[in-house]
Design a protein that fits this description.
Largest sheet of chain B: 6 strands, antiparallel
Distance between the termini of chain A: 64 Å
Structural class of chain B: alpha+beta
Strand order of the largest sheet of chain A: 5-4-3-6-7
Number of strands of chain B: 10
Distance between the termini of chain B: 55 Å
Oligomer: heterodimer
Shape of chain B: globular
Number of domains of chain A: 1
CATH class of chain A: Alpha Beta
Radius of gyration of chain B: 27 Å
Helix content of chain B: 55-70%
CATH topology of chain A: Glutaredoxin
Chain lengths: 197, 660
């Protein structure tokens, strides 16, 4: 075996080393430009009492989660029992952002539907869903047209934002929360933020 | 029940692939005909079970069985039937199953068309393919089971990504996978040859048609994908140097080099070590492409899922397959030296130079694709590498390739007189530069890039004509018909494919230099002008489809006071995912496309409309079609069948001799 014939093998092993290391990195971690920035403010109607509104500032002074959900979202069902358990154990307050409840649902066409009718439908559907599956939220607000979702850079439901006492987004979780991501990522970060004062 | 049957069939396919991997290889080592004979039925059985499994999964999609997780996430009851079927591969799990099925289909093709191969060689080829197949089926079963249930099921699915609901997507992935995976055959032939220590002209001849057919599939797959990006993404571009596009382009470049290198090995016995390395390399890049797309290491619009377990598994697979083959290569390569000698000026040299350039081009695409990862791994920050890098690298690398590509066929094998040849082609070369610069000046776009592109294109076309004239002139005295008939299919293949590159360059250069783009705000009755065309906006109507709502614009295309036709771009909102999509409208012509896409509606009721004028863009795909046709001609050459019959006779004689 001549040494020069080993060159391709060695080059490949070098490449494989980089690829292995690359697996430990997450190219999607950085892209949210909102990390460590103040969360976009909003004032939206509450799902439980649609005549009342709720604004982001009202959570000032607390470390909390903003969970984006909708009754039509299949993956939300997957994480929901975990959220309910979190609420039972009072781990961290979670505010729900009910995202495009009606127009996000493929089965319904909102063409020609008045905003009032759409809102009434969203309230009915959202409340029923929480009754059926349990309500883990401090409260939920309704983002009927998805505008707040755009401000937060939501590109899939569910997504969860961790927001600190000063109202800054500190972490974004894309997709359903799993027991593992809760234990290894979210709760340690909550603890850290709470300790930080 | 049916999804469980599919799952079970896939497990059986895995078992058979292991049998196919182990038994024939052991048989070949021990020279046991009985063990070697197991390979063929195992491969065919494996294909049957994968096909069955695939049909079961498709059935779950067609029936809208949303208790299957994959169907719930990628289908919808209102999705048109065609897209229910293609939705099967529009996701990670299903596309892996398609990958495994293509591999199995190629393997069955080998068992059917390679009856003339010596038993031990065929056994080794099937064994290697079985190993690769076992790796991929187990990857599918362990980390990405497509038959995963969602219990309790959901009432409605989330639908296939609307981007993928397009006719182009019906054929793009299967073509691409057939191409990618097809290089596994050339790879298996190379490994079998290394194992047996028999790397000769016969080996190269056996590999050639397989390599060429895989290359044709890959060419077609890439071309269809680029066409899809052009009319579906609504940005008017045709190639974006996206990591996933690069993942298919790298094996294409190396596969092109492999095809040419195999030709030299077959004809002259030279470059054997290099050819083997290219065969390993082309398939390795296919695997690497799969890794890049499937592991989520590189962010891309195409990447489906990020799951570290999957990444690790496929990386392990990569290290085993590529590492073992390169180790085998290192152990055996010194036996591959020698072969026909050739002088500096010969067809061999020009082919070698082009092969090196293509390999470097492939490596530079790899570097550009992985560079962000390297920097990130070395903690030097996050960057992305864009089209400017690739263009800057590609033009200087491909220019000599194109020049040599047309010069090489004029040269004789082994040795030629450089001066005489140069004198012969110099007038063509000068004429090409004159035509290139002249036409760049004529279209009023005299930049060095346009002039270079057009000169190269003229060079390809003129040299092709000269080559044909010379070939026809070889048999002076014969009738024109018999002269034409005397040209072999593989020569026509070479000629067409090279000409296709010239046509392709014209398209790329013209559209890169002269395309025009205008975004305008339009109300009913208003018009806009672009590149001599007038666009009259005739308003927007509702045009709802089965699973989307759409607004359809009506735009009249007018030139010199004559109405050329109506363009109806659509803005669609797919209901299930609430995802807006633009459907561009095209007026396709030989010398230009006019391309319109509908943007947002503004508060005052007017619409944003994007207008594009794309000169010569269809030539890009016509060039690809010619390349593909060239490949088909080359693979269909009668010579392979004639020599296969001879090999078969020899194999039978050998067996009879051994028996006696």
């Amino acid at each position: 075996m001549k040494a020069k014939f080993l060159v391709p093998l060695l080059l490949f092993f070098g490449l494989a080393g980089f690829l292995a290391f690359g697996l430990t990195l997450n190219p999607r971690e950085v892209p949210s430009p909102l990390i460590d920035k103040p969360a976009p403010n909003f004032r939206l109607a509450r799902l439980d009492q649609p005549d009342k509104t709720f604004a982001l500032e009202e959570m000032r002074g607390q470390v909390w989660l903003l969970n984006v959900w909708a009754s039509w979202c299949v993956a939300c069902r997957q994480e929901h029992p975990l959220l309910v358990r979190m609420a039972e154990q009072k781990l961290v307050p979670v505010v729900g952002l009910n995202y495009k409840e009606v127009r996000g649902d493929g089965a319904i066409s909102v063409r020609g539907m008045a905003l009032e009718a759409e809102t009434a439908m969203a309230v009915e559907r959202g409340q029923r869903w929480l009754k059926d599956h349990g309500d883990p939220y401090l409260l939920s607000v309704m983002d009927i047209d998805g505008r707040i979702g755009i401000d937060f850079g939501v590109y899939g439901v569910p997504e969860t934002f961790l927001i600190d006492r000063e109202g800054r987004i500190r972490y974004k979780h894309i997709g359903p929360i799993t027991p593992e991501s809760l234990q290894t990522q979210i709760l340690p970060k909550v603890e850290e933020l709470r300790r930080a004062g | 029940m049916i999804p469980e049957l599919g799952h079970f069939a896939l497990i059986l396919a895995l078992v058979l692939s292991l049998v196919q991997a182990v038994v024939p290889l052991v048989g070949a080592q021990r020279n046991s005909a009985a063990l070697m004979a197991v390979g063929r039925p195992a491969a065919q059985g494996q294909f049957f079970f994968i096909l069955f499994s695939y049909v079961c999964l498709t059935w779950a999609f067609i029936q809208s069985d949303f208790s299957v997780q994959l169907a719930a996430s990628n289908s919808h009851s209102e999705t048109p039937l065609m897209y229910k079927i293609t939705g099967v591969w529009g996701n990670h799990e299903g596309s892996l199953l398609l990958w495994a099925m293509s591999l199995s289909l190629w393997t069955v093709a080998v068992t059917v068309f390679s009856r003339h191969l010596p038993d031990a060689f065929l056994a080794r080829v099937l064994g290697v393919l079985g190993l690769v197949s076992a790796g991929f089926i187990s990857f599918t079963l362990v980390t990405s089971n497509p038959f995963e249930r969602l219990l309790p099921g959901v009432a409605e699915g989330r639908d296939l990504n609307p981007l993928l609901q397009d006719p182009g997507m019906i054929i793009h992935p299967p073509l691409l996978y057939m191409g990618y995976v097809g290089f596994s055959v050339a790879f298996a032939f190379a490994i079998a040859a290394l194992l047996s220590g028999r790397l000769d002209a016969a080996w190269a001849r056996w590999s050639r048609p397989w390599t060429t057919v895989a290359w044709v599939f890959l060419t077609a797959g890439i071309a269809v994908g680029s066409g899809w990006a052009y009319y579906e993404l609504g940005w008017g571009g045709w190639w974006f140097w996206d990591p996933v596009e690069n993942a298919s382009f790298m094996p294409w470049l190396l596969g092109t080099a492999l095809m040419h290198s195999l030709a030299v090995t077959e004809k002259r016995g030279a470059f054997r070590s290099w050819t083997v390395l290219l065969a390993i390399g082309a398939f390795s890049l296919s695997l690497l492409g799969t890794f890049l797309v499937r592991s989520g290491v590189i962010t891309s619009v195409h990447a489906f899922a990020t799951d570290p377990k999957r990444g690790l598994y496929i990386l392990a697979l990569l290290v085993i397959v590529i590492g073992a083959s390169l180790l085998l290569y290192a152990a055996r390569a010194n036996k591959l030296m020698g072969g026909g000698s050739f002088s500096l000026v010969s067809r061999e040299t020009s082919l070698l130079a082009n092969n090196v350039l293509l390999t470097v081009a492939s490596a530079s695409v790899l570097l550009g694709t992985l560079y962000p990862l390297f920097l990130d791994a070395l903690n030097l920050g996050k960057i992305s590498v864009g089209p400017p890098y690739f263009e800057a690298v590609f033009v200087p690398l491909m220019t000599p390739v194109v020049v040599l590509m047309m010069f090489g066929p004029f040269l004789r094998w082994k040795d030629d007189d450089l001066l005489a040849e140069v004198r012969r082609v110099a007038p063509i070369f000068v004429a090409s530069v004159a035509i290139g610069v002249g036409s760049a000046w004529a279209v009023d776009h005299l930049t060095w890039r346009t002039a270079l592109g057009l000169s190269l294109a003229a060079w390809v076309v003129l040299a092709s004509l000269r080559l044909l004239a010379r070939r026809l002139g070889e048999r002076a005295g014969a009738s024109a018909g018999s002269r034409l008939r005397s040209i072999t299919a593989s020569w026509w293949g070479m000629w067409l494919a090279h000409l296709g590159i010239g046509i392709f360059i014209i398209g790329v250069t013209m559209v890169g230099s002269l395309d025009r783009h205008l975004d305008v705000k339009m109300k009913e009755g208003q018009h806009a002008e672009l590149a001599g065309y007038t666009f009259v906006f005739r308003g927007v109507v509702d045009a709802d489809g089965p699973n989307y709502d759409a607004a359809r614009g009506n735009i009249e295309l007018v030139r010199d006071g004559r109405v050329l036709g109506m363009l109806d771009p659509e803005k669609r909102l797919y209901r299930a995912q609430g995802m807006p999509m633009t459907e561009a409208a095209l007026d396709i012509g030989v010398f230009r496309d006019v391309y319109v896409s509908l943007g947002e509606q503004l508060e005052d009721g007017s619409w944003i409309v994007s207008l594009y004028y794309k000169p010569f863009i269809s030539w890009i795909w016509v060039g690809c079609v010619l390349m593909g046709l060239g490949g088909i001609f080359a693979a269909a050459d009668r010579r392979y069948r004639r020599l296969a019959a001879r090999d078969a006779a020899a194999a039978v004689d050998g067996r009879v001799g051994a028996a006696a």
